[in-house]
């Protein structure tokens, strides 16, 4: 089956890359024609870069399809078959952590938080909070898949906590926390975790992989929000409410 | 172009290497030994590194600036209808180009044996982002606080997920999570910040924060609603 995927992929893939990049380029060109009127050289440069991005997207999707998706599915299937509680949690923690640790966008967000908070929230703390959040989410997510726990039993309490903190807590911290959910996992991590989750669902003998296997990525997006909110609460508790001069 | 290319390449290797290493170890430890799969992972890993480097470079120099140019120019045009229309188009277009969305859509299409079409799912997710990008822009105009918007949107989302048919719930939340990726985040954020900067007296930074959270609710709601309609 995986062999078929690799043979069939290139042409279909090319079409989906074109379908993906074309809309934004068209919107931009219409805008350029109506309002922007940028110099021709600038347009040529932008279009060249767009071609580079398309080639990159193509190679990325090809590489993911050839290597990471089948590998994630195979590991997930082996995991699901063992059904071992400890193994699901441990590997989830490990995989969640390593997929986030190297993510450039996490570092960028952490630096931003460091700067906007005037250094009172260190960048390293934010990175650790997000990585640990994703690690725990992946552990819980795999456990949920392996043992058939409904997604809502995890998501509803999680979002209720987010809502309560958003309602009562420091609003600037809330906003940063909510953005943290969007940056935690890049395209590769999301793809790999998705394949891992679908594989685990298949391996644990789930009748409907879509119901049991999906939802991991959602948990991985929710966890950093909670982790950064917890970090915020811890910092607010430690420092007096008035701003201190350093 | 060489400087940024090397920077990007280094970032990509840093992001991919840990996952590649752990994947290889797990494959050897857990899965019946298969040289084929190991070769695929290493080869695929190389493709992914080259692909991501080029993709990020192209976003930095091409797709990203395109979005930002529109974001900077748009608010000066005054007409809210125009701003809303373009925000929808931008949200839709950037989401369609998001690699995570493509991967989710194809994986779901495969896992459902084609019952769910990849193209339509991508379009639905993208429409959700477009609609909520419009809402985020309107919020800046009306001046409702982000807190209220988030609370209402989350409340509706949770309520709907309790009512909607269960098979659609995990798909809906995953669809919401993959939207705010490498392309949508900077462009939509840039659009909102540019817009709120033009509306005098607004703190652009405060207006921008939290918008990604709002935007990713759109696809969740649309997939849940679709589930309820199909039921």
Give the SSE map.
The complex is a heterodimer of chains A (246) and B (231).
Chain A: H1 2-36, H2 40-82, H3 85-101, H4 104-116, H5 123-147, H6 152-168, H7 171-183, H8 187-203, H9 209-213, H10 216-238
Helix pairs in contact in A: 1-2, 2-8, 3-5, 4-5, 5-8, 5-10, 6-10, 7-10
Chain B: H1 2-30, H2 35-73, H3 80-96, H4 99-111, H5 118-142, H6 146-163, H7 168-179, H8 184-198, H9 204-208, H10 211-215, H11 217-230
Helix pairs in contact in B: 1-2, 2-8, 3-5, 3-8, 4-5, 4-7, 5-8, 5-11, 6-11, 7-11
Describe it.
The complex is a heterodimer of chains A (246) and B (231). With 246 residues, chain A is mainly alpha-helical. Chain A is 85% helix and 0% strand. The longest helix of chain A is centred in the N-terminal third of the chain and has 43 residues, at 40-82. By secondary structure, chain B is mainly alpha-helical. Chain B is globular and about 60 Å long. The mean pLDDT of chain B is 82. Classes of the chains: A mainly alpha (246), B mainly alpha (231). At the A-B interface, helix 1, helix 2, helix 3, helix 4 and helix 6 of A face helix 1, helix 2, helix 3, helix 4 and helix 6 of B.
Alpha-carbon Rg of chain A, integer = 21 Å
Oligomeric state of the chains present here: heterodimer
Number of beta strands of chain A: 0
Between the first and last Cα atoms of chain B, what is the distance in angstroms?
52 Å
What characteristic shape of chain B results from the CA principal axes?
Answer: globular
The main β sheet of chain A shows up as: none
**Helix-strand pattern of chain B:** HHHHHHHHHHH
As a percent range, the share of strand residues of chain A is under 5%
% residues in beta strands of chain B: under 5%
Distance between the termini of chain A: 62 Å
Radius of gyration of chain B: 20 Å
Q: Largest chain-chain contact?
A: A-B, 103 and 101 residues
- Helical fraction of chain A equals over 70%
Total number of helical segments of chain A?
Answer: 10
Mean pLDDT of chain B: 82
- Poorly predicted regions of chain B are none
H/E element sequence of chain A:
HHHHHHHHHH
Q: What class, by secondary structure content of chain A?
A: mainly alpha
């Amino acid at each position: 089956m995986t062999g078929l995927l690799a043979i069939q992929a290139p042409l279909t893939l090319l079409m989906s890359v074109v379908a993906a990049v074309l809309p934004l380029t068209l919107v931009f060109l219409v805008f350029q024609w109506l309002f922007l009127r940028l110099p021709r050289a600038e347009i040529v440069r932008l279009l060249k870069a767009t071609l580079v991005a398309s080639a990159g997207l193509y190679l990325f999707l090809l590489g993911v399809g050839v290597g990471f998706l089948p590998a994630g599915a195979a590991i997930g299937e082996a995991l699901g078959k063992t059904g071992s509680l400890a193994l699901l949690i441990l590997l989830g923690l490990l995989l969640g952590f390593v997929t986030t640790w190297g993510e450039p966008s996490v570092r960028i967000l952490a630096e931003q938080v460091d700067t906007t908070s005037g250094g009172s929230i260190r960048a390293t703390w934010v990175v650790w909070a997000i990585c640990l959040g994703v690690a725990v989410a992946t552990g819980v997510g795999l456990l949920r898949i392996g043992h058939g726990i409904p997604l809502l039993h995890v998501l509803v309490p999680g979002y209720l906590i987010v809502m309560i903190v958003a309602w009562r807590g420091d609003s600037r911290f809330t906003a940063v926390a909510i953005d943290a959910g969007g940056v935690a996992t890049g395209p590769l991590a999301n793809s790999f975790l998705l394949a891992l989750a679908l594989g685990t669902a298949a391996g644990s003998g789930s009748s409907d992989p879509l119901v049991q296997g999906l939802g991991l990525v959602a948990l991985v997006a929710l966890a950093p929000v909670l982790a950064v909110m917890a970090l915020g609460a811890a910092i607010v508790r430690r420092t007096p409410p008035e701003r201190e001069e350093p | 172009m060489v400087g940024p290319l090397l920077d990007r390449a280094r970032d990509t290797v840093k992001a991919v290497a840990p996952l590649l290493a752990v994947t290889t170890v797990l494959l050897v430890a857990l899965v019946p030994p298969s040289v084929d799969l190991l070769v695929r992972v290493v080869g695929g890993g190389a493709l992914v590194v080259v692909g991501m480097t080029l993709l990020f470079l192209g976003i930095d120099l091409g797709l990203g600036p395109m979005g930002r140019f529109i974001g900077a120019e748009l608010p000066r045009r005054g007409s809210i209808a125009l701003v809303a229309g373009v925000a929808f188009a931008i949200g839709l277009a950037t989401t369609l180009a998001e690699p995570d969305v493509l991967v989710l859509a194809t994986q779901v299409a495969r896992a459902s044996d084609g019952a769910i079409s990849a193209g339509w799912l991508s379009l639905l997710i993208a429409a959700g982002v477009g609609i909520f990008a419009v809402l985020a822009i309107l919020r800046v105009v009306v001046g409702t606080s982000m807190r209220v918007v988030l609370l209402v949107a989350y409340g509706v989302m949770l309520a709907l997920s309790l009512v909607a048919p269960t098979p659609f719930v995990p798909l809906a939340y995953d669809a919401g999570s993959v939207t705010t990726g490498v392309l949508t985040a900077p462009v939509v954020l840039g659009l909102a910040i540019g817009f709120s900067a033009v509306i005098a007296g607004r703190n652009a930074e405060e207006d921008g924060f939290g918008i990604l959270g709002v935007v990713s609710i759109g696809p969740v709601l649309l997939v849940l609603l679709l589930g309820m309609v199909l039921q």
